[in-house]
Amino acid sequence: MKILILGAAGQIGRMLTDYLVEQTDHQLVLYARSANTRLKPKDTSRVTIISGNFQDHKTLLEAMDGVDVVYVNDMGNSKNTQTIVNAMKEAGLNRIIVASILGIYNEVPGAFGKWNISMVGANGIQKHSESAALVEVPELNYTILRLTWLYNLEGNKKYHLTYKGQPFEGAQVTRQAVAQLIVDIIEDKSGKYIKTSLGVGEPNTNWDKPSFY
Asked: Across the strands, what pairs with 97?
């Protein structure tokens, strides 16, 4: 299998690269701005590095050649998302996993939901909602990850999932857990993650705000 990581220079993108190299035998395409200078993967034998941005249709098409799964690490700009989706359609691809944020369906209850809106802002949530709508369409085999507040803790890969239509659970989750979840989704053969929008939190963290605030 060949995996394209769009936004590979981000923290989750870097962790995901390492986990896929360690846990699978897949070929990887790492795509980021100034990727050749910013990215130094541990195993170059299975990795192709491509420099480009999310609005560069031609370069995106080149990066998608022979790819089976596209992972998008940033959904904050609907124009970027539309360019990626258009490139996928032209390349004949339909499997996409995207990282978004919690709250795009007004699914975060209670004090934590109010705190989240106060921190992100209604405009920020709206931008991610618009991007998600471009992906959540019948012709794509999408998985949307609605991530709660992120932090790093080596060795903590615990995650808890809620589905669209359910109240969101979890005030925080590690980037390590998110990267592992993406690997688990890619490796899943059952199809249970296809056409799903998943709330991603850490178990037993249903608090009014993350522990690091």
From this structure: 71, 143
101-112: per-residue pLDDT in tens? 999 999 999 999
Tell me the pLDDT band of 9, cut-offs 50, 70 and 90.
Answer: very high
Cα–Cα distance, 153 to 151 (Å, whole number):
7
CB 68 within 8 A of CB 28: no
120-177: pLDDT as tens digits: 999 999 999 999 999 999 999 999 999 999 999 999 999 999 999 999 999 999 999 9
- Rounded to whole angstroms, the Cα distance separating 124 from 104 reads 10
SS3 90: helix
- Residue 29's beta-bridge partner residues? 4, 48
Of residues 117, 98, 67, 128, the one with CA closest to residue 200: 98
DSSP type of residue 213: -
